[in-house]
Specification:
elongated, single chain
Length: 84
């Protein structure tokens, strides 16, 4: 995610170690695997392709969050833990 890649991992941990938000979906790990049919993942070539494609699709979602956060100046530009 762009928010995690923006900072050094130790600094990101120090900033967010007390966060207790669990109402968000970590779509970087499970976007295509949960939304597509399991039949598509049976083929090894297609499975590898979809795993590589998943990072690009999650980047699209992250860029959409930047647009979504543009109107709200109180949150970080790359924030993705929205309740809705």
């Amino acid at each position: 995610m762009l928010l995690e890649d923006k900072d050094i991992p130790e600094i990101f941990y120090m900033k967010h170690r007390n966060d207790s938000d669990t109402d968000f979906v970590d779509y970087q790990k499970s976007l295509l695997t949960n939304s597509l049919s399991k039949y598509l993942f049976n083929n090894d070539i297609m499975n590898n392709f979809l795993i590589m494609l998943q990072s690009m699709v999650t980047l699209f979602f992250d860029q959409f969050n930047v647009i979504k956060n543009f109107k709200n100046f109180l949150v970080d530009k790359y924030e993705y833990k929205h309740p809705n």
